[in-house]
Amino acid sequence: MNKSEYIALKARIEYELRNIDLIEKALEKEGLFPKPVSSRISGLDIDSDIARRAIGSYLHDYYSAVEKIASHVCRATGEGMPKGDDWHHQLIFNMTLELNGLRPRLFSIELLNLLNEFRGFRHVFRNVYGINIDSKKEIALLRKLFKTSKLLRRDIAAFLSIMDEALL
Asked: How many domains does the chain have?
């Protein structure tokens, strides 16, 4: 990857991080971030179908932004996107690997384990009816969002620092 390709990658990563900031601010406004302290969302009981769907949508969007960051890194480095039925899992796992001469690792194993929970939730959210979302599991995942975001930002900052030093 040359300098201009890296600058474009960094801009894409920063764009997705801003999207994550917007998700967190929306949840914070509802009293659900950095930790859920509210039993209501926009005046609705947190266990209501509409609230579960709203929270699920935020969790879905959060993970999708993280996955986009990983996709941008894959494409920019030329390592290629994984193929097959488990490509979503492989994409995030591959980001825990340092590819000597190509890129440092993007995600720690600790972050990978948390992201796998978000990926699993997103799969359920996309593939079952919203009325079947388990609100207890959803809130448990929401409680992990702050730690996940903290680790995500730490890992991305470390990745960018190494890349900056190598390419800028």
From this structure: 1
